[in-house]
Structure formats: C-alpha cells, structure tokens
Write a structure and sequence with these properties.
Shape of chain C: globular
Distance between the termini of chain C: 44 Å
Number of helices of chain C: 12
Largest interface: B-C, 51 and 51 residues
Radius of gyration of chain C: 19 Å
CATH superfamily of chain C: Thiamin diphosphate (ThDP)-binding fold, Pyr/PP domains
CATH topology of chain C: Rossmann fold
CATH class of chain C: Alpha Beta
Structural class of chain D: alpha+beta
Oligomer: heterotetramer
Strand content of chain D: 15-25%
CATH superfamily of one domain in chain D: Chloramphenicol acetyltransferase-like domain
Chains: A mainly alpha (82), B alpha/beta (341), C alpha/beta (324), D alpha+beta (397)
Chain lengths: 82, 341, 324, 397
Amino acid sequence: MTEPLVAELLSMLCHIAPDIDPGVVDPRRAMVDQLDLDSMDYQSFLAAISSRYHIEIPETDVARLRTLEEVASYVTEHQAQH
Amino acid sequence: MTAVSVDVTTISRATTARSITYREAMREALREALRADPTVFVMGEDVGAYGGTYAVTRGLLAEFGPDRIRDAPLSESAFVGAGIGAALAGMRPIVEIMTVNFSLLAMDQIVNAAAAMRHMSGGQFHVPLVIRMATGAGRQLAAQHSHSLENWYAHVPGLRVVAPATIADARGMLATALADPDPVLIFEHVQLYATEGELAGGSVAVDLDRAAIRRSGTDATVITYGGSLPRALAAADELAKAGIQIEVIDLRSLRPLDTATILASVQRTHRAVIVDEGWKTGSLAGEIAAILVEQAFWELDAPIERVCTAEVPIPYARHLEIAALPKISEIVSAVRRACHG
Amino acid sequence: MNPTRDEALRLLGQMLLIRRFEERAAEDYAAEKIRGFLHLYIGEEAVAVGVLDAIGPEDAVIATYREHGHALARGIPPGEIMAEMYGRSGGCSRGRGGSMHLFSRAHRFYGGHGIVSGLLPIATGLALAERLRGSSVVTVAFFGEGAAAEGEFHECMNLASLWRLPVLFVCENNLYAMGTALSRSHAEPEIHKKAVAHRIESEVVDGMDVLAVVEAARRAVTAIRAQGAPRFLECMTYRFRPHSMFDPELYRERTEVERWKQRCPIEAFTARMREAGVLSAEDIAAADAEAIATVNAARSFAEASPIEPVEHLLDDVYTPRGVA
Amino acid sequence: MGEIRMPSLGADMDAGTLIEWRIAPGDRVTRGAIVALIETQKATMELESFVDGEIEELLVEAGATVAVGTLLARVRAVGAEVQVPPRVEPAPSIAPPIAAVMPAQPAPRIRSSPAARKLARELGLDLQTVVPSGPHGAIVLRDVERGRARPVAATLVQPPAVVPPVVQRPPLVAPAVTGSVRAAIASAMARSKREIPHYYLSHSISLEAALRSLSTINAARPIADRILPAAVMLHAVMRALWEVPELNGFWIDGAYQPSEAVHLGTAIALRTGGVIAPAILDADQQSLDQLMSALRDLVVRARAHRLRASELTGATITVTSLGDRGCEAVWGVINPPQVAIIGFGAFAERPWASAGQVTCHRVITATLSADHRVTDGHRGGRFLAELDRILQEPITP
C-alpha cells in the first residue's frame, strides 16, 4: 500500500539529491547512511514532504524518520489525520 | 561633422617669459590683431571709452580710435548682426558681448544667420566673425549675469565654440579664431580674467582642433573646459595625495569636440568624470557622456560621472552661489566613485 | 519720370518676368514640384523692380523670404532661382535654401531671410563694412511693415543713423503682417515715422507705381552716397496673393483684394506707357511673350538640373580647409 | 569548430611555454586527448583538448611562451561520418554532465563594467568565474585582472585539463573523466602542501548552549525554516572573522591581499566523488536565517550541478565539516590562494568539566589550518577562542 508513496518519496529525494541512484535504494535502510545524505539534504527532503503533503513535521519527530518506509508511514499517518 | 582646420599664421615675437593676467593676454591678442589687419575692428557695449566690462579692451580706444574700437548701443541683436554683415562684406569684426546671458538677445543673429549663412547660401557666403563673451558664475552676479550657456551654441552646426582656460590660450586663441573663415564664439570665464601666469614669448597659435591634456594620469579622465579647469586641477592635486592620478583634459574647443583625445584618454583610464559649469540637464557633459557611451562603451569600467551646476538660476548670496557651482570636493568624490572606492 | 522706351521695356520686362515666374511657381507648387513655404510677390513687383533699378552691381541687396522678385530684378538667372525652388543642384543656393533663401555672391544678393527683421542687422553690418572701408557702395534692405514691430528694427534704425551707415531701408508696406492688419499691429501705422524718430530721412511712395518708386529710390541712393547716412523708403503696396500657399485669407475681404488689383502695377505701367506713346501694344505683348519664354526656359533648366547627391549633405556647414 | 588555448593552470600563471605538440594538423582529436605539453613556472602539464575534431592549424610553435588565453590551435569539425559526441543519456544513476545541464538554465545576468567584459572576452575568461568587487556587486576591470592572475575555474565548457588548483573542483563532467579531476585535485593539494607553510590549531567547543537555543528556535518553526547546526557554525565563523580578519584573503604573487568581502567557501561532498567548496557570497552581510537559506540554496544547486562559477572560485576562506560523517576532527588543507581553512568534526556527547562539575555536553572539535606566511598561531588561537565565545551566546536568527 505504501509502494506508490515510497516511489513518490524516492522521486522527491532524487530531485533534492540528483546524484543518488534510485535503483539501489533500500526503503528499509537508513537513508543517511545508505545514500550519503548530509543534514542539509535531509532537511530539504523533509521540508519538501512537509510542503507537498501539507503536514507538520515537528523537530522532535525528525529523529525517527530514518528510512523511506518510516517516512512513508509517517506521511500516511499524518495525512489520515486530516 | 566636418571639422574645420585652418592654417594659422603664427605671429610670434621673441619675448621673454613674463607674468601676465588672462585679461592682459586677451588684450594683447586684440592689440596684435588690430595692428596686423586693418579689416579687424572691435565692436560691443562699452568696449571703448569704458574700457570693456571686464576691462579687456582698456586702452585700445586710444591706440585705434573709435572706428575700430566701436562702442555699440545696447542692442545686442543689431551689433552682433552688424558684425555678421560686416564679416559678409569682407571685414574681420570682433564683437564683444558683455555676458552670455545678454547674447540671448542676439541669439537669432548667431543661430539663424551666422551659423546658417554658409549652408543656406549653398556655400557662397561665409561669416568670418569672432564673438567674444564672458560666461560663468562666481562673482555674485546672480541669475542674469552668471550662466554658462556655451553649450547652447555648441549645439549649433556652423559655429565654432572655444573656451580658453589658460593664459596661453587666452593669448593665442584669438589669432586662430580670426583666421577661421567661419563664425567663432570665444567664451571667457569671468573667474579667469584675474588669473595670472607665466607666458613665454608672444602669441603662439592655438590649434583649436585639439583638446589639451593639462595633466596626465592613469586612474581616471576628468574632462572639462574654461573656468572649471582650475578646479579640476586642484582636485587632481588632492586626489594625487591619495594616490589617485587623474588625467585632466581641457577641451578648449566645445564645437567641434576633439573626440579622439577624449576617447584615447578614456581608453587608457577606463573612467570618465566630466566637469561642466552648465546645468546638467541637456549639458555638454551629457553630450560627452553620450559620445563615450557610443564610442568607448567597452572601455568603461565605471559609470560616467558628471559634476555640473545645480539646476537652479544662479543665486546671489555667496554661500548659495558656491553651493550651486561644481566644487573641488565634488570632483574628488566623483573621481573616487568612478575608481570604485 | 519720363522713361525712354528702353527704360520702359526694362522695367516692364522685369515686372512681367516676376509675375509670370510666380504664376508658374504657384502652378508648380500645386504640382508638388516646389515644396516648403512659397511666398508670392505678385502685386508688389513695382517695389523691387523700381528700387533695384536705382542701384548698381557693386551695391549690396538683402531681402526677406518673399524675395523671388528681388532676386529676379537683381539679375539672378531665373533658371537658377527656379532650380533652387525645385531643390536642385543647379539652384542658386544649391538646393539648401529653397524659396526663402535665395543667394548670389555674383550679384551681391545676400539672401532671402526667414526671420522677420533678422536681415536688418546684417544690412546694417554690410553698410558698416562699406563705411569703414570708405566706399560709396550702398546696401539696400527690403523688409515688410511687420518687421517694424520687432525690436531689432529699432536697434538697426538707431545704429544705422547713429553711425551714419550707407543703407537704404525699403519698407514694403503691404498692410498685412501675414494675417495681421497694419492697424492691429502698429500704434503708429505710418512706418516711416518710426525711422524719422531715429533721425533717418524718410519718404513714402506709391509702391504700385514703378516710376514713382524708381524716382524715390534714385533720390534716396544719391543722398546716401552724398551724405553717407541712411534713408528710409516706405512703399505702399499690396500682395494680390495669399501670404503663402497655405493661407486661406480669412483676414481680408475679397473686395479689398479686387480693389487693389485694379491698381496692378504692371497694368498701370503699361497703360501709362501706351498713353504716353512710349510703348505699343505689340511691345507689351512681345515683352510678355519674352517673360513667358524665359520662365519656360527657367522651368526646363530647373527640371533638367540634377539633385544634390546625399553624400554632399554636410557640405558648406564649415568652410573647407584652404578656402577663403 | 573549436579552439585550443593556453589555459590558466595556477594562481600566478600569466603565461605558459609550449614544450611540445603531441598532435599535428590533420590529426583527429577527441575530447580529453592530450595534445601538448606545456610548462608553467611551477610544473610541466599535459594539455588536453576539450573539443572533438580535426586539428586544422597549429598557431604556436614549440618553445614559444605565450599569454594565458592565447589561441594555440584551431580544431575543425570532422566529416559527417565521424561520430558526434553521444548525447548523455539521462540515466538517473549518472549525474548529468554539467555542460549539458547548464545551457538549459538561463545564465544569470552578470553585472559587470563594459571594460571588464571586454577584457574577459579578450582573455577568454568566463565572467562567471570572476569575483566581483565593484559597486552593487559589479565585476570591474581589476576583478578581471585579478581573475587572470588567480586560479580560474574551468568555465562550464572548459576541459578537465583546465582545472583550478583548488581542492573543491566540481565534477563538471561525467564520472568518466573524474580521474583527471582527481589528478587535478591531487596536483593542487600537493601544491598547497608544498608551498603553503600550514600551521594547525584545534579547540574543543561545547555546543550545548547553542544547540539548546537552536532547538527552542526550531521547535517553533516549520521544517523548511529550521536552522541547521551547520549554518550556526558558518555564522559563528563569519563573526569570528571580524575579530581576526587576516584569515580572510589571498596569498598572491608573494604577498598577502586581504579581502574586504567574506565569501565563505563551504565544502560539500559529492556522492559521485570529489568535493566542492562553493562560496556563500558576501556571507558577512547575512543574518543567520539568510545564511541558512543561502546554504540550503547552495547545497541544492551543488547537488544539481547548478552552481554559478563565481561561487565555485569566489571563496575567500573555506569551512569544511565532516561532522555528518562522524569524524571527530578534520585538519583541512588550505585551498590556494586562500590562507586559512576551518574544520568541524562531529558533535558528540562528552563529559564536560565546568565550574568543578562534570556534565554531559555535546562537544565539537574546531580546527584551523592557516598560512603561516600570513598569520601565526597566536592570531589563529584568537580566532578559535572567539569562535568559542560566540557559540556560547544565545542564537539570534
């Protein structure tokens, strides 16, 4: 169910970090380690998600958004609240 | 525009260098011309018995008599036009107008007749007339005796407009002007009359086709003429203390302009500051700026700066008059801006 | 004055030449061969012809923008005048001047000037040169009564009188400054009195009578040469045509024009000469035919004259090096 | 079709000597091929062609010394049978070569004086590589003249051979040529180490106060507006430079030239290899929020190969931070002609003794590598102390 969402998130990630290879991304691995993202990339990614899905991502939640799947779940969860 | 260049007969006398005022240099030039050519005569308001508003012609009446040092009634249009007519008929009149402000009463004659005559007659008639007039501010003469309107005449094809800024030019330009077959307007800045300087020898013919580089420099070109030249040179001294070397160009001829000298200098310095006592709007400074943009655009490393008179009729009160006129400090600032710092 | 047959033929021939020339000029204007302003002199021929008959080739002449008549009477070749109006290279001002600015150095004709009264200071200066030179040359200046309202007019009357300059001021009083009637522009409508105020000897003459004009002009010129002082001649005249080709003539009555036309200087002169037995009807017809032939030749000359090359546009703004 | 010009290969290179041609008229060359050996005052270098084609004419003979920018050879297009350079496939796994990306971007309007433009054209210098110093950020003549003397970044279409002797050279071309970029980085860094007498200082700084202050600020902000610790560090560096401005400038032609402007080079590692240090221009004019925006913008564009060349070469001082990689400290190699580089390691919880008490603090190791020709350890230490002081202050966005 989260598959299309994961793909969409991946596409957004590629937009922010065009030098990653989406073909090798494992949605269950922590993005920072796997994709060599730095804090700025990551913030930009989460900001894009916040903007696109109209959800607030409090500072305190950031630490638990490590994998694409976690992010997808988070998005699904918070969208459902609206 | 076809620039006219005339072979000038140099009337040079071997005299030793002496100190002389701008006014005296002018008078010497007049005396020399009157002596050399019987067709030369001087005409204007109070040039004879009074000795000239600015005392340039003092003493000439005694030597040359009232026919050749001819006091004219207060009728600028008539006596300037009479100068045109006399020139048409083969004389070499030198007409003096008290100030450029008064010349407006004769502007019809200067612009519609003198300047146009050669062309509208298909080259049959030319007007070898010299008109001298005082210009400029600085003597608290207020709004009808202080303006710098030479640019109005420099606008007009058919006229040659010159502005001697140095003692040597005051001494030498008249002969060149008299040798010119077309009307020449000589603008003498009132602030210059009392300036004094060394003059070597007698008359040295001035090449009116060439601007003079009064000071060489590499950092910026200051283009000026007439009464603003001393200010530009003073600014150059001040800037030199700060390590900024400016080139100061004295245009000498306002029409035609020696574009080549201006362009060559700006090609070296890449920065131009124009100092012109005229009002900035529609000024000669604007014309020069336009020439630089048209012909030296790719050489410019900074916006062209203009230092001109404030857009106000010249006021009487000393401090207001000073405030209205281009100042040395403004030239310095303009050069500094042009040099980016 | 009782002219000889030759004198009569000369005066008639010149007046007819001006008349026929201008009639054709008006035609050519309508056909767009002549453009700009065209100010016709028709009706006033006796003034130019009469005054210029009184001076010699060494004398100087200067006139207003309504100067075809003066240029023709001064002897400038009609072809060159017409070519000038056509804007051609063969024009007397090489196409630079047009109708209003006819010049000829050879004829000491110092132009056609478009600024009303602007020619007066120049005339004064031409005379000043002769005064300084001590020559007996006279300068003749033609201007309209409209010029007498200008400050320059008074400056020049004063200057010429003050300096005793050999100049003949000829006021062609045709009663209208463009469309403004004399009475509406002059507090003192007797223009010669303004000259008198400057102590210039003045005379009023019927400008429709060429012989009267000749006589008055001769008197004035003789006096100038003898006394070395200016003279003023007010010639009462009338232009039969509008001010210029653009003028609808709203300011004057047709009847007034018709009344003046009854006094046509050419008809008046021919009638008088026939009456006096100086000229025959054949003489007059022949003179007219000659004038028409001259005008036709002038038009042919103008037509055949090349236009100035545009490369010469900037010529004669300044004197080239080595000239003059 | 193309030209081969004497490249600028070093900070003080005005001219180069053509040692030998490796090609002759009529030879076919491909992009990247070695066409000549050139000698500079510092080293003999290989000159690569950056165009495909056939050598039409050699214009400079071997042995000749010519100014940078001089046309050395003309290259004409080869016949139609010749394979044109393949269009780069937009394979998502490969970063598009910047040369292919950039033309699609409208070139930013560069404010420059006409004379500067003319000289740049004459020198074959891309104005984007020139750091402005004129009014309103305009490039003026002196900037181009300095640009000629200073390391010039490859213009976007310049070959890998014309690499700036700076460590943070961007991979302007596809990874296939990264090797030569690598070589250029190696050469430049070797030069730095060879020529610049580095001295090194380090200092541990507690970030506890700063990070807490930052959390408070960020908690009230949407994620897009949150400030990252990296920006806090950059801002602190910029402020500390007010105290020790001599770290901000250049060593050119045997002399130190201070820079009035602070263009803060920020090392950004690229996943495709290499590292670039584009500059946040006029960093000293910016608030923390502005600096954060500038940094975000810079990183995004760096990832997308959309940096302006002036950003690539404009830095007056560089900050490198390997904190995200978990390294404790980084000792930077100065990026010539700059005179200092500041390094930040990861911040990590450490026992922190203060006022007789040991508590747990997040601590970072700040280092300074500086050019001893310009400053000495005392001034360097002053800088780190100032940095520490600033980081103990409450954060003002």
